[in-house]
Design goal:
alpha+beta, six-stranded mixed sheet, Dna Ligase, domain 1, 16 helices, Rossmann fold, about 30% helix, five-stranded mixed sheet
Length: about 650
């Protein structure tokens, strides 16, 4: 049996895979200690399957501990050790601005404040050591660190990506003399050039690692007490790491949760479609979108999160603050807005009956008839229609609207926000969304899928049977993955097959690529001499430099519309990933029987109509037509008039819009 558990902002999802049988469960998340919600979800899914903990062979976990700590600024007290004269590198940062004409926009405060920065009298240049690091200086740095009593230390010295000897000496001294202090070293975290990104990523790693290590330690103990195997942890890159690796590398799992959903969406896009789909994960707090080509989500070598650069490999997922728990409000100009503030898991939307009083997207969906006022959401949450109406009423009065009109406005604004996010990863990158199917998941995604698809001109929806817990299924399907990279800066006579092979071999040894059954992926980042940025080009482990330059020219032509065959090409960075398959998932089957059928009023385009409601597990071959709500075990797929659907052999609801 394979078990996956994903922690969201509102619910914790669990999926137990037993051959072709899928068992699912949801439990409210517990923000104060996520491991409590994890164990509750595990116990619920084991009970649903009639299974014992000892039967579980593999446990994969996706979490939001690092994400929440970064957003809420409650990581470790972190001290930065860097080359003397460069202690303000985090403050200076880059001089670009997200909004060009917003001159007074504040940047987030550095995670290592000015009083927690120590300059080291040493200097390494591109050609070697300029100022030697003395033993006396090492002792002085250790004494300063001890006096300032941080919880974590980040070491980032100039040109350490070329020569890490000074960083290694400082790290060894701190670890030896100050046991229990977490030390992150830039040459271990990110041995790549560009000082600011390397420094910012290393500081972020140190800032999060103690918190993650503490949480994962509690989780390990609780799983052991229950008789479960040690969990593997999802990384932002879409691969699993051991508990020890995840605890040491705080920056690697910042986007752990969205990565699991992206992997699951890629799996279902291949099983129930042609492998090309737009992933649309709408949970209680946020919405994550991604492009899936050939069953795989693209990867990037870094991105910004909460306005902070994370220069590490991660799946290319774009996030906006629009979820089922997103709060509706009116801005100073009188416009209706939704999010990014969320009611979260505690107290949750007003209709959960847990003390929430502000109007949310879930409250609006309930008032429009899309959710059953007499039913329960996954996780045993009973819905209170009167509480939802009371929450929406003040907003409706301020807008001079009826409650259902205000609810329709809330849903329309939320849909517009999600369409905007979808355009970021498609239209703004030259990708035509109309040639993809829309694959919605998360507890709220399928409710909004048809409206989002219609706005983007998409005519096909793939809604997985386990769409409400697809991120947890993606965790089960994920491979173990270890990634590393190194800036090599090779050009001219240095760019030879022998030199590239030597650099790749060193990375393979570092990443453990000699393991049995391991698959090695290599990506080469190249640019023309004089350019400031590189293009990633996949290639073999032992590439021919001429072929590599030719592939780079083709990629440059595709991306920018031109190439320069005579220009010198530089190999800047080599990225390498080692993957080992854990639990292949390719035999999902629909197991439902005839669902319960009822009808209830639903509001579409300003009119109330009677819609069909199908509730329960859906059998293969079942058909339905809008207006209709398909109430699956953990989510609801809403079909407006003009949509028809059929359940395929894997239990996926395949919906298509009728031609107008």
């Amino acid at each position: 049996m394979q078990l996956g558990v994903d922690v969201g902002g509102t619910f914790t999802d669990a999926v137990l895979l037993d051959g072709a049988s899928v068992h699912t469960a949801k439990s409210p998340s517990t923000p104060s200690d996520q491991s409590q919600g994890v164990l509750a979800a595990i116990e619920a899914v084991l009970a649903a399957a009639g299974a014992e903990p000892a039967q579980v062979e593999h446990l994969a976990h996706g979490m939001t501990v690092g994400t929440n700590a970064l957003l809420e600024r409650r990581g470790a007290r972190t001290l930065l050790v860097t080359t003397a004269g460069f202690t303000d590198l985090l403050e200076i940062a880059r001089q670009d601005r997200p909004r060009l004409y917003h001159l007074c926009a504040d940047r987030p405060q550095p995670l290592s404040p000015p009083d927690l920065r120590v300059g080291v009298r040493e200097r390494i240049g591109p050609d070697g050591v300029l100022t030697e690091l003395t033993e006396e200086e090492v002792e002085r740095v250790v004494a300063e660190v001890r006096d300032r009593a941080p919880q974590a230390v980040a070491i980032c010295l100039l040109f350490a990506h070329l020569d890490a000897s000074h960083e290694r000496r400082l790290a060894a001294a701190l670890r030896d003399r100050l046991p229990g202090l977490h030390v992150s070293v830039s040459s271990e975290v990110l041995p790549r050039f560009r000082e600011y990104e390397r420094c910012a990523t290393t500081v972020l790693d140190a800032y999060l690692a103690p918190l993650l290590d503490s949480y994962l330690g509690r989780l390990r103990e609780r799983c052991a007490e229950l008789g479960l195997p040690e969990p593997a942890v999802m990384q932002s890159s879409g691969g699993l790491a051991t508990l020890a690796e995840a605890g040491r590398g705080g920056a690697w799992s910042v986007l752990s949760g969205p990565a699991g959903g992206a992997v699951g969406a890629g799996l279902l896009a291949s099983i129930s479609g042609n492998g090309d789909a737009l992933g649309f994960d709408m949970g209680g707090t946020s919405c994550d979108v991604c492009v899936i080509d050939g069953g795989a989500v693209g990867r990037s070598s870094g991105r910004e999160f909460a306005q902070r650069p994370i220069q590490l490999p991660m799946l290319d997922v774009h996030t906006v603050g629009a979820g089922g728990g997103s709060i509706a409000w009116i801005d100073p100009g009188g416009a209706l807005r939704v999010g990014p503030r969320s009611a979260g898991a505690e107290p949750g939307p007003a209709c959960y009956g847990r003390g929430g009083t502000q109007p949310t997207v879930t409250d609006a969906n309930l008032l429009l008839g899309y959710l059953d006022p007499a039913g329960e959401l996954a996780g045993g949450v009973a819905l209170d229609e009167e509480a939802a109406r009371a929450a929406v009423a003040p907003l409706a009065a301020e807008l001079d609207l009826q409650a259902d009109e205000a609810a329709a406005g809330i849903v329309a604004v939320a849909n517009a926000e999600m369409v905007r996010a979808m355009r970021v990863v498609t239209v703004e990158r030259g990708v035509d969304p109309r040639r993809y199917a829309l694959l919605p998941f998360g507890g709220a995604g399928p409710l909004h899928a048809a409206a989002v698809a219609a706005e983007l001109g998409i005519g096909r929806i793939l809604c997985p049977r386990s769409g409400g817990v697809l991120s947890a299924l993606g965790l089960v399907a994920s491979d173990r993955r270890r990634e590393t990279a190194r800036s090599v800066m090779l050009t001219g006579g240095e760019l030879t097959a022998e030199r590239i092979a030597a650099e790749v071999n060193a990375l393979v040894e570092l990443a453990g690529g000699d393991s049995d059954g391991a698959t090695i992926e290599t990506v080469y980042e190249l640019r023309y001499a004089g350019q400031s940025f590189e293009l990633p080009v996949p290639g073999p482990v032992r590439p021919d430099p001429v072929a590599l330059a030719r592939d780079f020219a083709a990629e440059h032509e595709r991306r920018y519309g031109y190439s320069e065959p005579e220009a010198a090409v530089e190999l800047i960075t080599i990225r390498l990933a080692v993957t080992i398959q854990v639990a292949p998932v390719d035999d999902l089957r629909a197991t439902g029987s005839e669902p319960a059928r009822t009808r209830r009023p639903m509001r579409f385009e300003g009119e109330w109509v009677e819609g069909d409601v199908l509730r329960g597990e859906l059998p293969a071959g079942l058909t339905a037509a809008g207006p209709c709500a398909l109430e699956l075990p953990e989510t609801t797929l809403l079909l407006p008039p003009g949509w028809r659907a059929q359940v395929d052999e894997a239990g996926t609801v395949v919906a298509e819009r009728e031609a107008r």
